[in-house]
Amino acid sequence: MHEIGIVKGMVKTVAAFARKNGIDGIEAIVLQIGELSLVIPEYVAELYPMVVKGTPLENTRLEIETVPGTAECDACDEIYSVIACEGICPNCGSSEKTVLSGMVFLIKALRVPQ
Hints:
Blueprint: H1 3-20, E1 28-34, H2 41-52, E2 61-67, E3 70-73, E4 79-81, E5 97-101, E6 105-111
Parallel strand pairs: 1-2
Antiparallel strand pairs: 1-6, 3-4, 3-5
Helix pairs in contact: 1-2
């Protein structure tokens, strides 16, 4: 489960950013996790409370947006869901593709009190 290291790194990055920019309170951290990123959103959500316990981020919410894994077929230019189609173009059956989205693990936003 490599997610523990990813969550710890994300928390460290957010805490450093908040300190550097004089941000006293963060209500929520918004993540984007791609379907093809090899990071399991459920594990991230489960580990987050344990990682932030006893830190300045302990009372923050974690919001996770899943980014669909899409690809364009190199043979026929069909755009399709990599997961739903198991990596095979539904139009021509080719497995040759260019991934368009879904590889991301990104801190999209920090929500701060108004």
